[in-house]
Amino acid sequence: MKKYLFVALAALMLTGCLSRPPEPEQPQPPVTVEPVTPPVVEPQPPVTEPVPQPPKIQQLDWLSSVQPLVNQMLKADGVNPGSVLLLDSVKNNTNGALQTAKATSALHKALASNQTFSIVPEAQLATAKQTLGLSADDSLGSRSKAIGLARIVSAQYVLYSDVSGDVKSPTLDMQLMLVQTGEIVWSGNGAVTH
Fold first, then answer.
1. Which parts of the chain fold into alpha helices (H)?
2. Band of residue 30 on the pLDDT scale cut at 50, 70, 90
3. Cα angle at 58 between 53 and 60, to 5 degrees?
């Protein structure tokens, strides 16, 4: 019997039955939560990116660029004094932006005091463009349009001009055409000066 008692005690010890009984649970006091106020953050102005600078349009000296060409044209063979000239606006065929309206204006100034041609007035030109169904701002992108318009205003000659090449060192090309045949009676070119 002793033997069984020893085995029973050993079994109790191994199973942990001899450990202390658990203490009754104590109720925990309620936890109070304090509201946290967020830190005051000063509003930051929005980050702005700098506005990119527009490309600088070169200031070209159009009048001194067109004057030598106009002088050559006025002395050309086959030009009849007293003729009517349709001055087409200057086209930009460069690889950048140019102020061709200033070039056209310089051509008008260079031809204003000549004794060879009388220039078709702007008002008459605008009316003729309307007759052809063109807008007043149409730059007559082709020689055939310019010649058709010249026939309406009874001009004998058309001066067709364009600026070509690199925008940093452009070249001005001018052609004087006879309206009746479309023949080029004079052509010249020169560098545009800054």
1. 2-15, 62-74, 100-112, 122-131, 143-152
2. confident
3. 165
On whether the CB atoms of residues 170 and 163 are closer than 8 A, the answer is yes
Locate 184 and state its tokens: 């080029």
Closest CA to 158 of 170, 137, 140, 131: 140
Listed residue (158, 156, 175, 168) closest to 192, CA to CA? 168
Cα separation, 115 vs 96, whole angstroms: 36
For residues 82 and 157, the answer to whether their CB atoms sit within 8 Å is: no
CB atoms within 10 A of CB 161: 21
List pLDDT tens digits, range 170-182: 999 999 999 999 8
The structural domains of the chain, ordered by start, are 62-191 (3.40.50.10610)
Question: pLDDT class for 16, splitting at 50, 70, 90?
Answer: low
Q: Write out pLDDT tens, residues 59-112.
A: 788 999 999 999 999 988 888 888 999 988 888 899 988 888 899 899 999 998
Contact 146, 86 (CB under 8 A): yes
